[in-house]
Amino acid sequence: MPIFSLEIFPPKRTAPVGTIYDTLDGLQGLEPAFISVTYGTGKSVDRTATARIANTVRAEYGIPAVAHLTAQYLDEAGAEEALDLFDQAKVAGVLALRGDRNPEREPANVFHHASDLAAFIRERRPDLPIYGACYPEKHPQAASLDEDIDNLKRKVDAGVTHLISQLFYDDEDFLRFRDKARAAGIDVPIEAGIMPVVNAGSVRHMADLCASRIPERLAVMLEMWGQDPASLKEAGVVYASEQIRDLVARGVDGIHLYTMNRPCAARRIWANTKAFFA
EC no. (predicted)? Predict the structure, then answer.
């Protein structure tokens, strides 16, 4: 049976942390195996917020929580502090990421890659599940998909036990990647990351950020309804539901739905697809 999981993020620093309850309340009735909670670029306030929300997900909603942890701006003391906080929150796992570059900050130059952070976590917490990210269309900085999969294999060898993909909009890209990963000896679960289309500008921004291709079917949809948010949201729910249906039919290990703290869209996609996870 495929896994179904969700991602949420802490409220912006200008918003009360309690607003996360609006998101979590809106997601009640869905049946995720876990909810992952994102993390900023490495400030202590980021790990505290992530730990607090992960604890809320587990303690108040009864859902296992996976806490993100980004590597670039962490030193070993910061990583230890984060792991201690996550221990207290009783997280079900840690998603070890390199994280985005912040031009206003200098990297700590301790954990250069997510695999370095995964190895550190594995040494300090031998029994803790470690999640990792993967890129169906290759990491933007990789020369080729084959090179990126070689790097991914090193990440798994360093201790990652479960992979979650970045967004993609053509299922064939994910399936091609999955088959190459399996051929390279990567045998851990690989969940397909689905980000619903709800805003034309954000789709193009995220596609640029992740070097993700916009297939013709999606381009036509954006052209047709890009200036009509209500219609685009309706079309986006259908598009994501169809992606999930196709992926589950073709034997993927699971679906990780990026909710973007928009529970309404997530609920409708779940209603369309929950039978596939029964």
Answer: 1.5.1.54
